[in-house]
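User: I'll paste a sequence; please echo it back and then give the predicted structure.

Assistant: Echoing your sequence first, then the prediction.
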Amino acid sequence: MRFAPLFLLLLPLAEIAGFVIVGNAIGVAATLGLVILSTVAGILLLRVHGMGLLMRFRDASRMTGDPGQELVRGAITVFASLLLIVPGFLTDLLGLLLLMPFARKFLWALIAPRIVTFRSESRSYTRPDAPQSGPTKDGPVIDLESEEFHRDGKKNSPWSDNLPK
């Protein structure tokens, strides 16, 4: 993190140098055309994959698959789209690299051991190779209907002092 300010200072300088080098090689009009083309491509990619991401995440969370992988894949795609929108050739190259399947698989391999996804049905999905931590559900499950559980404010309950008055 201590290199972040240095990176933020040097990135625009590197992008400007990239504009000068590419502008000298192919001309100013072609350079501006490439910048505009990459921005439009980033916007379209963000728009198309943004809505598709929500649908794929919903489908993955309903199936037995890992919705965490779909969420990370979508986040990488959104980040790559944002890098394409930012003017500059270095950010465009990084954005295009992140769109490659091998780069997303590599990033997933780095991030996956740190992700555990919990579902709302009180079931959790953890990859088989992930380290086990946190509470386990080995105890009995008590399933109550709404009529079977209610608060009546009896004073003999140890939690009655916490009831709203």
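The first strand starts at residue 117 and ends at 118. The radius of gyration is 25 Å.
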